[in-house]
Design a protein that fits this description.
Elements (H helix, E strand, L loop, with lengths): L3 E6 L6 H13 L8 E6 L5 H8 L5 E5 L16 H6 L4 E4 L2 H7 L3 H13 L3 E6 L3 H6 L2 H13 L4 H4 L3 E4 L13 H19 L1 H4 L4 E3 L8 H5 L6 E4 L6 H9 L3
Parallel strand pairs: 1-2, 1-8, 2-3, 3-4, 4-5, 5-6, 6-7
Helix pairs in contact: 1-2, 1-12, 5-7, 7-9
Length: 253
């Protein structure tokens, strides 16, 4: 079975005290995960070392940075390099989140550079893609998201692509309370896997986990995750509540 992933995106939330309390609560409630199941905490940069120290003794629990620089090092005040992230033992990095694309004008070309940098240090990119409401209403979401994949990932070899986690996030369903139906999520995930298969073959496409991200809650996770091409979720608000995120972890196939 493909990897099934419950990824928590804390965004810019919590104090250090609150972060430690949340991690403690989640890890105390943590269940024994199967080999194909993973939990990833994408925490703010100041909390990476804390989170990494907490998950070290918990098999299949990992930490992610929420972003990285496309530059290796140098005079880039305020930026964080992949080398720095790697030096903490962190194994994942979230790239291309819709908020980075919208608020910080991150392009597909820039994200291709970040993907390359992450892979060069052995980090697993959680690569985000997804369409805004006007694209969904126009019915052009498939081609819109396909373009994101092609321009940021299709320079990779099949071996490199197999190391990527993709997160599909319909932007119109992030923080709005709206959620794509389980069938809508499956439809897009199936399309994305077909796009990968056309470029890399069915075997490689069948390896890549595709997560759903868009108002995933404990109450809807099981239905969404049950779909054959949905391999877990990238979770925002619900990941800040221990009971809710535990329920989402329990919903993994």
């Amino acid at each position: 079975m493909r990897q099934q992933v419950a990824a928590a995106n804390w965004k810019m939330n919590l104090t250090i005290t609150q972060a430690e309390e949340l991690l403690n609560n989640l890890l105390q409630q943590s269940k024994q995960l199967s080999d194909h199941q993973k939990v990833v905490f994408a925490v703010p940069f100041p909390y990476l070392a804390l989170a990494q120290s907490k998950v070290n003794s918990h098999p299949n629990y990992f930490v992610a940075a929420q972003n990285c620089s496309e530059k290796k090092s140098g005079a880039y005040t305020g930026e964080t390099s992949v080398e720095m992230i790697h030096s903490l033992g962190v194994e994942y990095v979230v790239l291309g989140h819709s908020e980075r694309r919208e608020y910080f004008s991150e392009s597909n070309a820039l994200l291709a550079q970040k993907v390359d940098m992450a892979l060069s240090y052995g980090l697993t990119p959680i690569f985000c893609c997804g369409e805004p409401l006007n694209i969904r209403e126009a019915g052009t979401q498939n081609s819109f998201v396909e373009k994101q994949l092609k321009e940021s990932l299709f320079h990779l070899s099949a071996e490199q692509l197999a190391k990527i986690v993709i997160a599909y996030e319909p932007i119109w369903a992030i923080g709005t309370g709206k959620t794509a139906t389980a069938d809508q999520a499956q439809e897009m995930h199936q399309h994305l896997r077909a796009v990968l298969a056309a470029q890399y073959g069915k075997e490689t496409a069948g390896i890549v986990p595709i997560l759903y991200g868009g108002s995933v809650k404990g109450s809807n996770a099981k239905e969404i995750f049950s779909k054959p091409d949905v391999d877990g979720g990238l979770v925002g608000g619900a990941s800040l509540v221990a009971a809710d995120f535990t329920q989402i972890i329990d919903a993994l196939k």
